[in-house]
Amino acid sequence: MKITIFGTGYVGLVTGTCLADVGHDVVCMDVDAAKVARLEAGEIPIYEPGLETLVRHNMEEGRLRFTTDAEAAVRFGTLQFIAVGTPPDEDGSADLQYVLAVAETIGRHMTDEVVVVDKSTVPVGTADRVRDTIARVLDERGESLAFEVCSNPEFLKEGNAIEDFTQGARIIVGTESEWVKGLMRECYGPYIRLQEKLMFMDVRAAELTKYAANAMLATKISFMNEIANLAERLGADVEQVRRGIGSDPRIGYHFIYPGCGYGGSCFPKDVQALARTAGDVDYSADLLQAVEAVNQRQKQTLFAKLSRAFDGQLAGRTIALWGLSFKPNTDDMRDAPSRTLMEALWAAGARVRAYDPEAMDECRRIYGERDDLVLVADRQQAVAGADALVICTEWKVFRTVDFAWLKDELAMPVIVDGRNLFDPATVQGHGLMYFAVGRGNSLQEELPRLAGF
Ligand code: UDX
C-alpha cells in the first residue's frame, strides 16, 4: 500500500523503513532539505543498530524514498503518518505546532480521501485538533473530501527500535472507523499475529495509553531509586531487595533497576506533559509530579556523592566519566544524567575527561570546545591522570574492569557508579572506594578512609 510519513526523525525513519521492508511503498517527507539530502545519499542522521542497512536496502529496492516536496508527499499515500517532533513548551506541555503544521499541509494538498495517523506522542485530544485543522483548510479550499484521523502511538526504545517495531508487545490504534481498521490491518498485517497484537480502542484511550505506559515505567524507576536511597541510609543492599521483590510476578524484574535517574527523549518529557494535561482538566497529578521530582534529585546524586567523597573540594580536580548517552546503544544525550553531573562539576571548578562509545560527537555538538571538557578515544585515556571515576551509562564495554590497573591510574581511589555494575566487595578488595546506588551504607563506611587519604 502507499504510505506517506511526515518527519524523518527517529520515529518517522524507523516507521517508514520498517513498513517499506515488508513491501509497502513509502515516501518520507521532511522540511529539512539538508537532512533529506543526507538520507537520499544513504546517510542516517541518528545512531540506531541495523537501521542504516535497512534504509539502504529498501532505497535500492525502490520502496523507500525521501522528499521535501510536501504536495507530492500528500498526494502519494493513502495513509499519512504524522511523526514530527513534539518538544516540550516552556511550561512542560507538548508543543503541537509541528503536528498542526502537517495537518495544514495535508488539508491544503489532498486531492483524494486519506487516513491521517498520529504517530507522534501527543496529548489527549490532539486527534480532534488535527481533524479540525484539516476540515478548516478543506473548507477554505471549498473542498469536501473524506478523511479520518486515528491515533497509533509508537513504543520504540532507542537502540532496540527495529525489534520493537517488528515484534512489539502491541499495536494500538485509536479509531472507530471500520475503513481505518481495515487499512491499519493491511498496513501492520505482515508484522503481527493480528488477534494478539492489534488493539483497537477509542482515539482518546489510545492517546492516553502512550502516556500511561511511559509514566508507569518512569514510576517504577523512580520508586526503585527511592528504595535505593533508603537502602543506602538503612544499611541494606538494594540489589538484594530488587531480586527479592522482582520474584513476585505481580511486580516483575523489568524496569526496577536503580540508577542515576532516567533520561532520554520520552520519559522526562512525557511525565511532565501528562502532569500538565492533568492540570488542564483541574486534576492535581501528585504521583506524576513526585516521579519527576525524585528523578531530578536522582540525577544529582552522582555529583553529591563525589562532592561528599572530596569533602566539597572539587575545584581543580579532574573527573573521568565513562558513558555520556542516557542509556547504552544510543548516542542520545537528551536529559542524560551525565549532563547534570558535568554541568555541576564545571560549576564547582572541576574538569571532565570523558569517553563514550557513540555519544562523543553529540557531546561536542551540545557543549562545543571548552577547556574543562576533554573527550578521549577510549576508557583507559579517560582515567589517565584523573582523580576519580564516575560511570554514567552501562555500556557493555565498561562491565569488565582491571581494578588493580584502575587503582594505579586514579589519583584518588574513588569510583562513583551510577549503574551498579560491580560487586562492591570485589571493587573494595582492590583498595578502591566504591560508591554505587543503594548498596548498603558504603558511603558512610568509606568516608573516614578517604578523609585520611
Ligand atoms: C522509552 C520506552 O521504553 C519506550 O517504550 C517509549 O516508546 C519511549 O521511551 P527509551 O527512552 O528509548 O524508551 O528508553 P528506555 O530503554 O525505556 O530507558 C529509559 C530510561 O530509563 C534510561 O535512562 C534508563 O537508563 C532508565 N532505566 C530503565 C532505569 O534507570 N532503570 C530501569 O530499570 C530501566
Automatic annotation (TrEMBL):
Could you tell me the Gene Ontology terms of the biological process aspect for this record? polysaccharide biosynthetic process; UDP-glucuronate biosynthetic process
Q: Which GO terms describe its molecular function?
A: NAD binding; UDP-glucose 6-dehydrogenase activity
Q: Which domain of life is it from?
A: Bacteria
Q: Which Pfam families match?
A: UDPG_MGDP_dh (PF00984), UDPG_MGDP_dh_C (PF03720), UDPG_MGDP_dh_N (PF03721)
Query: Pathway it belongs to?
Result: Nucleotide-sugar biosynthesis; UDP-alpha-D-glucuronate biosynthesis; UDP-alpha-D-glucuronate from UDP-alpha-D-glucose: step 1/1
Record keywords, A-Z: NAD, Oxidoreductase
Q: Which reaction does it catalyse?
A: UDP-alpha-D-glucose + 2 NAD(+) + H2O = UDP-alpha-D-glucuronate + 2 NADH + 3 H(+)
* Residue numbers binding substrate: F155, L156, K157, E158, K210, F255, I256, Y257, P258, G259, G263, K327
Question: Where does the record place the catalytic residues?
Answer: C266 (nucleophile)
Per the similarity annotation, which family is this? Belongs to the UDP-glucose/GDP-mannose dehydrogenase family.
| Name under which the protein is recorded | UDP-glucose 6-dehydrogenase
